[in-house]
Amino acid sequence: MGKRRGRRHAGSEGDADGAARGRQRRRTVAERLEAGELSLEDATEKARETLLRILTAAPKSRAELEQSLARKGYPEAVVGPVLDRFDEVGLVDDAAYADMLVRTRHAERGLSRRALAMELRRRGITEETAADALEQVDPDDERAAALALARKHVARTRGLERDVRVRRAVGALGRKGYAPGVSFGVVRDALTEEGEDGLEDDYPGVMD
Questions:
Q1: Taking the model in full, what pTM does it have?
Q2: Which of 35, 137, 146, 201 is within CB 3.0–4.6 Å of 186 for a Cys-Cys bond?
């Protein structure tokens, strides 16, 4: 009985050792290049294929693609030239990407220029490229989007006290990047369309 238990224990240790070896971290592309296991040409081809898979799923900025390849262990000596080539053939185009992002985020989500600028910055778009893309949204467009959001949020709170309705709608607009003055103004307009009166008296100076 004792010997059988010992054999089972030894077998378990062997299984654990095998499992641990199976869980060993895979070597990065940079490590394989340094060790001579991978040629620069092969690493470049792998990076190209990886970028094409990423871009097939969704458009990305150059900075986002650089980060993705870096996380996968590709060295800059591989990443830079591959992305340069993608730039040349138009597969990576930060200006077009920024234009698309501003257009869709503003139309579909009603984001303000401020919120759009923050998102472009987060995605690695340069200030100059972002400024050009943001020209698509003028003040009239921005206010129209804010008013549409205000109408939607006001409609959801019918039957509640006016202060609650204003607070919730203004908070929702704030999360879209709209300044308090703009938010209160369009919420006032949305409530006025429903027949609410006297909002300027409740919120003096903010509604102007």
A1: 0.76
A2: 146
